[in-house]
Write a structure and sequence with these properties.
Elements lengths: L6 H22 L8 H25 L5 H8 L2 H11 L7 H19 L12 H25 L5 H22 L2 H5 L6 H28 L2 H4 L5 H13 L6 H18 L5
Helix pairs in contact: 1-2, 1-7, 1-9, 2-6, 2-7, 3-11, 4-5, 4-6, 5-12, 7-9
Length: about 270
């Protein structure tokens, strides 16, 4: 997608489109309830954190850093989440979880050292990509903690729809002030980019984000984050097969360390 669409614009179009479809779905299925001002503020905050910062910053970094690397970095999410739940007195971590958190930091440290994995021609933006992915990971997991504490009494399509409309709309406003719309008129949009955008709207947002929001309601946050088991392995394989991305040996080692860390964190016994 980012080969043709400016990253912030692409993220905005993706999420605004998916959010509108989900909100219409909630209304048509008569699952829409008018939110209170307090709950609307919570949706605005979490939508901004998850979509504008979380998805938006990862999309920008995707212009400079291979998708497989980005997926490995996102596996740091459970580590960030454990620390946030600990500091907010929601869930005190067990020794097994603390060990997993330390391992996760080691794994990401190895990733950060692999500057040569930056996409060709974007080496100078490598550290910016790492910083953006770190901010995105923190923002996304902070929203999970907020949603868990808020316990919003709305249907998943309504919650996801409002969050994506707010986050996607804000992304488009930012994109406009960045001059993306003027620049976009001079770009030849590839058919593969359109396919990627449609795929992200349907599978990445309407399906996956909707399921994600439902899981936050019914399962512990650290258990919800187990999707990061699969993301890095699938992304590394697809990046290698379809996008010609390099599988650096240290990247595989870092991936193993991070996935082990996530396993320790998410398999700890809970009440």
């Amino acid at each position: 997608m980012v080969q043709s669409f400016p990253p912030v614009m692409g993220s905005g179009i993706r999420n605004l489109s998916a959010g509108t479809i989900l909100l219409i779905w909630a209304m048509v299925s008569k699952k829409y309830v008018r939110p209170s001002k307090k709950h609307l503020l919570t949706m605005t905050l979490t939508g901004t954190l998850m979509i504008t910062l979380g998805n938006g910053f990862f999309t920008i970094a995707g212009k400079w850093i291979p998708s497989s690397y980005a997926a490995l970095f996102s596996a740091l999410g459970p580590v960030v989440l454990v620390l946030m739940l600990w500091f907010s007195n929601i869930e005190k971590p067990q020794p097994k979880v603390i060990l997993g958190s330390l391992l996760g930091i080691v794994g990401v440290g190895i990733l950060i050292s692999l500057k040569k994995l930056a996409l060709k021609g974007y080496e100078q933006y490598y550290i910016y990509g790492v910083v953006l992915m770190l901010i995105a990971t923190i923002a996304f997991n902070a929203s999970m903690v907020i949603l868990k504490k808020a316990r919003l009494p709305y249907s998943t399509p309504q919650l996801s729809g409002i969050q994506m409309i707010i986050g996607g709309g804000l992304s488009l406003v930012i994109s406009f002030f960045l001059g993306d719309f003027q620049h976009f008129t001079q770009i030849e949009v590839k058919s593969t980019a359109i396919f990627a955008l449609l795929y992200l709207i349907v599978i990445g947002s309407i399906v996956a984000f909707n399921v994600f929001n439902w899981l936050i309601k019914v399962a512990p946050p650290t258990l919800v984050s187990t999707y990061t088991y699969v993301n890095p392995l699938v992304a590394m394989l697809l990046g290698w097969l379809l996008a010609g991305e390099e599988l650096h040996p240290l990247m595989i080692v870092a991936g193993g360390i991070i996935v082990t860390a996530v396993a320790l964190i998410t398999t700890a016994k809970r009440k």
